[in-house]
């Protein structure tokens, strides 16, 4: 309890405090007012202000004598400089460049010289997309030891080795050269005999030979030492050729983006070098599997099993994106598909606009480019030679870049995309050994790009049927500080590789069973026990990669699927082949619902169509529900159905590429335009 005196003071303060404050404020006001009244006012009249202003104006306008001004300047020690004469004299002076040379030449220091290097900060890819698919790819046949099987039936090496691409077919510039030289067709109105034409061609040939010779100097005979060195490098006898087979593959394609611009900035900052760029080694993949409703831990995707495919590709599919967004090591090459089509493996934002747009078909009657080119004498053979000959030239370029190496060195496999195979095949190991003993040598890549965003793509060929996965990726780069001494304390200079952070996981991706039923609707309505569901059964053959859809109806108690004859697409231009295929899913329909449902009493109309629903007993004893709404919109099923129809339709044409439903159609249209017409494909369904 408070002291009684304190309580009394508190009560007095609460009761009289405001009155005391007002009284004190009033007293201060009265005192200040009295002091103000006692102060004397300013004694200033208008006449005084006027006189002061006139005096100031007189001082401003008063003229000063020049001598007086000069005397004042001299007194202040300010002397004239005669600047005008100095300028005139300087114009007459001749400048000699040697007088202004530096004492020593300008030297560009080694990047980072005298600066301490750090470890670059790596980043994770983003916007990942995973898509499961199946098909048949052209690969080399391997024996039980993993070695390529020699094809003893081939006596001559193809002209497009190594690393040929399907879209590039040999022939050099012969087609075009033949047209321009001795291969042009005769005009119907020509009156010259064949002998006269041949003499003119020979005369033109000799004139061109002299023209070329006039531009050269020195002997055209190779130095004997050079010839001997060349002979030593060339293999004796024909090169071995390997058997090629079509192998059925299941794969999950994981595509994404990498902020290459940010990574380059991190490298420049860490390595103290304005030209520093990352040297990408590979892309690591990990996945989780959904088992009994629970995700397993992250497991590394078996790179050795994947490389059995990626290292043994006689041909690769075309890349839609330019090379400056396809870093070697981070983009797995696409095997050339003999069956099936690539889907969702190109990032649309990184593909040039001209490759995503589909040209309109040429006008009927040869008014388009195709008709124009076909109508001009000799241009038919020119276009044919160009289509076939440019491939040979480019194939030769690819062979030149590859250097004839099959697994050693930087094998290009016909293009930058396959450079990875040579790296994986042992060439990179030799290169790493080369710089390992070099002390402070920088690790640099031939691939450099100024693009901010680049593409990453990994392929998992080890996915199992009837499984669900989700993936994550990380980049692996060569350590730029390996074996260097000019690094900060604690910087890793021993490890060959640096590992980036893992990306966010992809969405769930499902690899369906090899034989999958999809509910697509019901047949005519009847008693509930007789409702038949119309199933589309998709069958994938692991032996050759053929994926075929077919329709079957089944009611409760019946097995879904049976042996049936269907058209099998081919890629050699021989047309579709009819073949009996076993579509038996080994699944039994337990119950069905759907079809036309009658409306309740009082409502007009014939009824409402209810989507099909079927309970299916699978071969492993589990029960699955097949719903029409989900199955009709299943992305993989729709791709299979669309691609099968296209492959059957195009079976009479030899396959030129397999870049997805959109790009294939586009290139088919381009070929038709150049040749005089042809159907156009769809939009760019092969991209995302």
Automatic annotation (TrEMBL):
The residue ranges flagged as biased composition, category Basic and acidic residues, are: 151-161, 193-213, 225-235, 642-653
Per UniProt, the ranges with Gly residues bias are 170-184
**What keywords appear on the UniProt entry?**
Membrane, Transmembrane, Transmembrane helix
Membrane spanning stretches? 20-37
User: Region labeled Disordered — which residues?
Assistant: 149-241, 642-662
| Name of protein | Uncharacterized protein
Q: What is the lineage of its organism?
A: Bacteria, Pseudomonadati, Planctomycetota, Planctomycetia, Isosphaerales
């Amino acid at each position: 309890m408070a002291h009684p005196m304190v309580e009394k003071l508190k009560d007095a303060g609460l009761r009289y405090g405001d009155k005391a404050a007002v009284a004190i404020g009033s007293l201060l006001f009265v005192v200040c007012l009295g002091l103000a009244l006692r102060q004397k006012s300013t004694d200033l009249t208008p006449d005084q202000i006027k006189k002061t202003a006139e005096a100031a104006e007189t001082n401003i306008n008063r003229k000063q004598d020049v001598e007086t001004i000069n005397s004042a300047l001299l007194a202040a020690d300010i002397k004239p400089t005669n600047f005008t004469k100095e300028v005139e004299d300087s114009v007459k002076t001749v400048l000699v460049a040697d007088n202004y040379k530096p004492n020593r030449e300008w030297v560009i220091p080694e990047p980072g010289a005298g600066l301490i290097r750090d470890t670059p900060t790596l980043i994770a890819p983003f916007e990942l997309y995973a898509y499961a698919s199946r098909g048949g790819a052209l690969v080399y046949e391997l024996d039980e030891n993993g070695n390529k099987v020699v094809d003893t039936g081939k006596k001559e090496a193809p002209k497009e080795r190594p690393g040929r691409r399907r879209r590039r077919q040999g022939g050099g510039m012969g087609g075009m050269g033949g047209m321009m030289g001795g291969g042009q067709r005769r005009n119907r109105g020509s009156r010259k005999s064949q002998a006269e034409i041949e003499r003119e061609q020979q005369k033109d040939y000799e004139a061109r030979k002299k023209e070329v010779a006039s531009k050269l100097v020195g002997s055209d005979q190779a130095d004997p030492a050079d010839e001997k060195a060349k002979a030593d490098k060339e293999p004796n006898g024909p090169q071995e050729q390997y058997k090629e087979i079509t192998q059925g593959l299941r794969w999950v394609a994981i595509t994404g983006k990498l902020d290459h611009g940010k990574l380059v900035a991190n490298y420049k900052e860490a390595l103290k070098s304005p030209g520093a760029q990352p040297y990408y080694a590979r892309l690591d993949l990990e996945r989780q599997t959904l088992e009994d409703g629970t995700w397993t831990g992250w497991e590394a995707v078996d790179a050795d099993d994947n490389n059995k495919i990626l290292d043994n590709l006689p041909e690769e599919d075309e890349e839609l994106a330019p090379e400056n967004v396809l870093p070697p090591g981070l983009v797995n090459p696409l095997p050339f598909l003999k069956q099936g089509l690539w889907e969702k493996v190109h990032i649309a934002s990184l593909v040039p606009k001209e490759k995503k747009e589909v040209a309109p078909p040429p006008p009927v009657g040869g008014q388009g480019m195709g008709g124009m080119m076909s109508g001009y004498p000799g241009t038919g053979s020119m276009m044919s030679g160009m289509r076939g000959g440019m491939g040979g030239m480019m194939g030769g370029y690819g062979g030149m870049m590859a250097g004839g190496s099959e697994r050693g060195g930087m094998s290009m496999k016909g293009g930058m995309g396959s450079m990875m195979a040579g790296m994986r095949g042992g060439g990179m190991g030799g290169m790493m050994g080369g710089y390992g003993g070099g002390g402070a040598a920088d690790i640099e890549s031939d691939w450099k790009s100024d693009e901010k965003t680049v593409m990453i793509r990994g392929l998992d060929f080890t996915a199992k049927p009837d499984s669900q996965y989700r993936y994550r990726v990380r980049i692996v780069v060569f350590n730029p500080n390996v074996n260097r001494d000019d690094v900060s304390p604690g910087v890793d200079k021993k490890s060959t590789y640096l590992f980036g952070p893992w990306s966010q996981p992809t969405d769930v991706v499902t690899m369906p069973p090899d034989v999958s039923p999809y509910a697509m609707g019901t047949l005519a309505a009847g008693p509930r026990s007789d409702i038949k569901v119309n199933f589309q059964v998709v069958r994938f053959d692991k032996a050759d990669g053929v994926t075929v859809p077919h329709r079957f109806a089944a009611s409760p108690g019946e097995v879904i699927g049976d042996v049936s004859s269907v058209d099998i697409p081919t890629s050699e231009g021989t047309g579709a082949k009819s073949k009996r295929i076993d579509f038996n899913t080994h699944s039994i329909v337990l119950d069905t619902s759907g079809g036309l449902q009658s409306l309740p009493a009082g409502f007009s109309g014939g009824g409402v169509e209810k989507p099909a629903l079927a309970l299916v007993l699978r071969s492993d004893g589990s029960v699955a529900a097949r719903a029409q709404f989900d199955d009709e919109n299943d992305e993989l099923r729709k791709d299979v159905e669309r691609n099968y129809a296209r492959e059957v339709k195009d079976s009479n044409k030899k396959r030129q590429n397999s870049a997805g439903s959109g790009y294939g159609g586009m290139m088919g249209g381009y070929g038709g335009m150049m040749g005089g017409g042809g159907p156009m494909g769809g939009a760019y369904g092969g991209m995302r």
